[in-house]
Amino acid sequence: MSKTLIITEKPSVGRDIVKALGGFHKKGDYYESNQYILSSAIGHLLKLCVSEEYEAKRGKWTLKNLPIIPPSFSLKPIEKTRSRLKLLLRLIKRNDIDLFINACDAGREGELIFHHIMQYAKTKKLQQRVKSTSMTTSAIRYAFTVLRKEQEMQPLADAAVCRSEADWLVGINGTRALTAFNSSKGGFQLTTVGRVQTPTLMLLVERENAIKKFAKKDYWEVHGTFQAISGTYTGRWFDENFTGKGKDDLKPERVWDLTVAEAICKRCQNKVGKVTEESKHTTNLSPPLFDLTSLQRTANKNFGYSAKRTLQLAQALYEHYKVITYPRTDARALPEDYIGTVRKTLGVLAKTDGYGPLASTILKKSWLRPQKRIFDNARISDHFAIIPTNIIPKNLSDIEHKIYDLVARRFLAIFYPPAEFLVTTRITRVEEEPFKTSGKVLLNPGWLAVYGKESVSDNTPTIVPVQPDEIVQAIQIEIVAAQTRPPARFTEAKLLSAMENAGKLVDDDDLREAMSEKGLGTPATRAAIIEGLLNERYLIRNNRELYP
Q: I need a labelling partner for 478 at 20 to 30 A (CA). Which of 8, 267, 485, 546 fits?
């Protein structure tokens, strides 16, 4: 009887598939049933290399032997996982195997791991792909009913090979060139270079240079306290003719000449002013669902977790607890046919203590409906956004629960209506000098209720009410001295944002367009890039700040 060999990327995923499909018996480092054989690759088992005839034998760390651009690449086993590769090759060569199923992680890297194994084994047997973004039993079983053909996956495999070979070419040539340059005066100064790590490092170096070159400038603000019929309020002078938006440190409320500030102060002190104000009803949508980078940013900002730590925690929630969907994603939308699954997930959350009332409200008020902001196939590549599964989490550690809570509340909030505010802008004009006062009132919490901001009283304005065209008294006008500040150093949250939006920093139009979609690296690799720079001592971490 012929059988199918399933290859997973990690042993834990293999165990989940074994449990979901059933009927397996463990045989050393693989499982076997009447229909399937299953084993794991334990990540990458092979690495790129070039044939010896194209590699410099002597003086390979000298500039004269560069660049290295081989006509083709070979594959070489990674030493520490050689035994697992031997096992897979033995299983691949079994006569009763007539089909291979790639069950590695459903992305470019998982495609590359499987592709390299098949290439190294030189097999011509039929190959198919199973893609599941959730590790629940029902999701795994369904995924095995909709296997994808090898031809469908070929573009992803080609992209994976292209990126892998580009990384190798940039890495080996750049590293050997800079090492040779830095070692020219003696010693061996290994200087690693990477397609993603080097421009990422440049972001920090440029920021550090900007900080070091920054020259503080003095400026002043003019603050007023005004007596109205119903009480006092404060306002800040501003330049109504300001045209320098976005230029260095220029802002309409800053006065760069002390004598000008003193003149405003003298002119307005103890004078009366006329008040006009405008109130505008505004709405604020909930933030979109998480992809990995936005989850890492939020966890760094809220809890100080590194990008690497957040990825580890999210991976555990996905693999071990099965309470969130696949985390290594760059999408922030869900498939258009996913409404039924989302309804089931909301039904499960409705039975929990922490999220029950919130999920029940969504279902009772019929807020779950098709809308492009949430369900949009056009904004999904390999995987969709990170959301909870229909499994209730149990026995999570405190830090695991914090990451799950971020995902669960972001998921619930997306279905709630916008928050509604009344934004008031008050202009107090004294001796023709304008002072601005702003206030904001929460009218309807909408999605903010998911985060506990349900009370309007929590957002009552700090400004007292005034009558239309009321005359007020300027009881105190004072000058506040200040200095401009240098740019802030990167935290991991800010660096992840900079990597994601790196295309905006490129001057060349074509290159900027090429980088506009993805930025530097991928959500799955950015944490490793930052950790690599730290390990190489190109960066140091000081509290939450990163220094080159």
A: 485
